[in-house]
Amino acid sequence: MKVAVLTGGGDAPGLNAAIRAVARAGWSAGFEIVGVRNGWYGLVEDQLLPLTQETISGILPRGGTILGTSRFNPFKSEGGTDKMLDTIHRHDIDALVAIGGDDTLGVALKLSKLGVNVVGIPKTMDNDIPGTDFTIGFDTAVNVVMEACDRLHPTAEAHHRVMVVEVMGRDAGWVAAVGGLAGGADIILVPEIPFTIDEVCERVKARHARGRTFSILVVSEGAKVAELGTQIVQEARVDAFGHVRLGGVGNVLAREIEARTGYECRVTVLGHLQRGGAPTVFDRVLATRYGVAAISLIVQGQFGQMVALRGNTIMAVPLQDALQGTNAVSRELYEMVNLFT
Ligand code: F6P
């Protein structure tokens, strides 16, 4: 049996660990494993890379993806569907493991409906895939946010400043909520709960009145300033999956807080630092468990599924169900976050 594996969408630490696990578990099941370069683009353009012991040697701790990735939507490219199916048939690919977020897995679902044997592995630093509790890359990202808060605290305190930390996460607030909670942030703003700048200023002033003359404010890039009624975008043009490029809310907040309270503000935009570097223990182990589980589904002939973590149990969820709706930060988590802010 020949199994292909690809990584799509934004890179995230742990992708290589997942590729390695698919290869190692696949070999032990007697499969031939081939990598597809650059996500769905590589399947359309027939860019394959045979995976061998040498190719996967030493990749477990490495960020990025040895296969490359892209935000390419094959169903939006002329002849994309036929070209993908041609590549699959030309190379006698029996099954495909797609590692990615909702966009990549959405393509996987469509392919599965076209009769391709597909299994999905959830990856995104945003942790916003409904069918699973955790996605590959999230834990590493929140560790970066935590460390950033730890590093910003001394300066905030020494200079009596408001330090605004803008984090990624698109329309979900997981990165801000969990990273900010772990980093002891004083105010956390997520897309799920719109806020007014006045409210934020009141919270900063209340801290000052209590003698806490500094604040760490963690804000999701997708957080909605109620006065503006929208998210703040860096680039309004949408990508192949309909996403704008978010960014800038940190600067807007800092400028307004400084103007309305008189407290000095500084902004740190963590950006792609959250997706770089070596994966944490949790991401390496999660990626390994997912890779092994994906091969086990292929062995059992269970396709159109996504591997998922629920509690501490790895299970299979139909891709159709796994991508249904949104995975927003729960009220329960947000209320807990607010206990500490
Ligand atoms: O989906 C992952 C993510 O890192 C989002 O949090 C962020 O909005 C986006 O990707 C950034 O994309 P790019 O790497 O294309 O700038």
Topology:
Layout: E1 2-7, H1 15-28, E2 32-36, H2 39-44, E3 48-50, H3 53-56, H4 80-90, E4 95-100, H5 102-113, E5 118-122, H6 138-159, E6 162-167, H7 174-182, E7 187-189, H8 197-209, E8 215-220, E9 233-235, E10 245-246, H9 249-261, E11 265-269, H10 281-299, E12 305-310, E13 313-318, H11 319-322, H12 331-339
Parallel strand pairs: 1-2, 1-4, 4-5, 5-12, 6-8, 6-11, 7-8
Antiparallel strand pairs: 2-3, 9-10, 12-13
The protein binds 6-O-phosphono-beta-D-fructofuranose.
Overview of the structural elements:
The structure is a single chain. This protein has 341 residues and is an alpha/beta fold. 40% of the residues lie in helices and 18% in strands. The chain has twelve helices and 13 strands. The strands form three sheets. It has a seven-stranded mixed sheet with strand order 3-2-1-4-5-12-13, with helices on both faces. A four-stranded parallel sheet has the order 7-8-6-11, with helices on both faces. It has a two-stranded antiparallel ribbon with strand order 9-10. Strand 12 (305-310) and strand 13 (313-318) form a beta hairpin. It is elongated, with a radius of gyration of 21 Å. It starts with a strand and ends with a helix. The mean pLDDT is 97. 6-O-phosphono-beta-D-fructofuranose (F6P) binds at residues 10, 101, 124-126, 168-170, 221, 246, 275. 6-O-phosphono-beta-D-fructofuranose is lined by residues 10, 101, 124-126, 168-170, 221, 246, 275.
